[in-house]
Amino acid sequence: MFAPVYFDHNATTPLAPEVLEAMLPYLRDQYGNPSSRHEYGRAARRAVEEARAQVAEAVGAHPTEVIFTSGGSETNNLFLKGAAACRRSGWVVVSGVEHPCVLEPARQLGHQGWQVHELAVDGDGRVAEADFAIALARRPNLISVMLANNETGVVQDVAALAERAKGAGSPWFHSDAIQALGKLPLDFRALNAAGVHALTLSAHKIGGPKGAAALVLDKRVELAPLIAGGGQERNLRSGTENVAAIVGFGAACALSVQNMEQKRRHLQDLRQALEAGLGALGATVFGAGAPRLPNTSFFAFPGLDGETLVGQLDRAGFAVASGSACSSVQREPSHVLLSMGVAPDLAKGAVRVSLGRENTAAQVQEFLAALGATLQRLTHLAAIAV
Length: 386
Prior knowledge:
Blueprint lengths: L4 E2 L10 H12 L10 H20 L7 E4 L2 H13 L6 E5 L4 H10 L5 E5 L9 H9 L4 E3 L13 H8 L6 E5 L11 H7 L3 E5 L10 E5 L25 H14 L3 H22 L2 E2 L10 E5 L5 H10 L2 E2 L15 H5 L4 H4 L3 E4 L6 H25 L1
Parallel strand pairs: 1-11, 3-4, 3-5, 5-6, 6-7
Antiparallel strand pairs: 2-8, 7-8, 9-10, 10-12
Family: Belongs to the class-V pyridoxal-phosphate-dependent aminotransferase family.
Cofactor: pyridoxal 5'-phosphate
Pfam families: Aminotran_5 (PF00266)
């Protein structure tokens, strides 16, 4: 079977062998419901709580602060809508480069009596200081700013933003940390002390299974559940827990923090080699002037369509993306790049490479060679069409 080199780890990651091994008993023999009182149920409950402790340890939280959910989208909706239901309507502040699963629920709140401030960003995708000051002057009730962007990889100084927000009416501050988990050290205790009340995490970005995620939540924050029922997960997420996926999430978190600095250096070296080659080919790399995740490069070539380039590279044996996997069905330019002031024509050409620990320097050089040949072919075809 044809298997392209996988360069799309920000969309999802391969299931780690150790994670699959941890999950298998709960897909076969250990089938108990964690809410049952017999031994089958108690075994399932122990597995869920062990995984909760593993997730908490990976981000410097206490296990009682970890609420399991089905995915990042549900988790972000749980925080924004759940918090809004418990606070007096006012201002909700989100950055203009958030994932759609933050932007869309915030906009929905805008139809329910809330006022929405979408923060401007600078040309590298960082929250604009002046606009953040304007937002804080409105004394918002809720703020959500992602820790690391899924398209550009740009890292926000969330701790500094949250510290500044403390004096603006004590808003509840949330951060989508899905892309940061496993790539950057995370310390919820330190972030919480700075004023961050909640983090969103997801399993399938770190070698875990799809279908498991978590909200790490300061227990002083009151949320209304999106799903009411049996009262699982501190009454915040009712429904029988997906035990196998949760066990896999815990195992993936334990793996993610092992040798993190070594993995970071490996990815950073690969990205530097990639971007040196991209520069030689004439690419524009977005967010290059800001701190970024070590594995992410988002770039474009003037006059070339990103979707076309992604398709050509796939046929050449490389799986890359044209932006967020969750919005890839849309042909519109990336809202992240438009927020950064990138011209729509250039934004439409954007391609994202997101590297993983299994990728090699040889694969990067092979990709650059394939990319160069593809660019020559597409440029030649464009010249003939003219």
